[in-house]
Specification:
- It contains two helices and nine strands; from the N terminus they run H-H-E-E-E-E-E-E-E-E-E.
- By secondary structure, it is an alpha+beta fold.
- It folds into two domains: 1-31; 41-162, no CATH class.
- It starts with a helix and ends in a 5-residue tail after the last strand.
- Residues 1-32 have low confidence and may be disordered.
């Protein structure tokens, strides 16, 4: 009789095993391997430089969570590069607000939040160009997955991890 009771207790504990494994799997699947990080830098090389002369370029970051808006892509203005190289510090987080108006006249605001743990693509354009027409020209990367990055713009290149630069 004692053997039967021990076997029954073992069967009951194994009955919950699939549920426990499922909960563990879902928890691991939903958690990010990368957390948002402050102080991530981007070393940008100005690909327009020839014979000591460089065009000025506005460097823009395009978050991967783009809403569909008539105003074009949402972008982060990272800064202006006027020399052969510049170092920018990427923000830890940014928010984009889409403000609509309901039929009753009240505002309807949707906020899109980006963090350095989410993908970002880059683009560059002359500072006199409208940002409404700006779009990314590089592949996406996740800034928080390295302390620093480097890239040459303009162009369709990919940002690569590097040591942090000093802005």
């Amino acid at each position: 009789m004692t053997k039967l009771r021990n076997m029954s207790a073992t069967a009951v504990s194994f009955r919950w095993l699939p549920t426990v494994l499922l909960v563990l799997f879902v928890t691991i699947s939903c958690s990010s391997a990368v957390e948002p990080r402050s102080g991530v830098t981007l070393l940008v090389t100005n690909g327009t430089c020839q014979g000591g002369n460089c065009d000025s370029l506005r460097v823009l970051g395009f978050p991967g969570n783009q809403p569909l808006t008539p105003g074009g892509f949402w972008s982060l203005d990272l800064g202006l590069i006027t020399a052969s190289e510049a170092c920018f510090t990427l923000p830890r987080t940014a928010a984009f607000h889409v403000i609509g108006v309901r039929p009753d006249g009240t505002r309807d605001t949707t906020t899109f939040t980006w963090t350095s743990a989410k993908s970002l693509a880059l683009g560059a354009q002359p500072p006199s160009s409208s940002q409404f027409q700006a779009n990314p020209s590089t592949g996406a990367f996740v800034p928080a997955s390295a302390a620093g990055w480097q890239i040459t713009v303009p162009g369709g290149s990919q940002a690569t991890p590097s040591s942090a630069c000093t802005p």
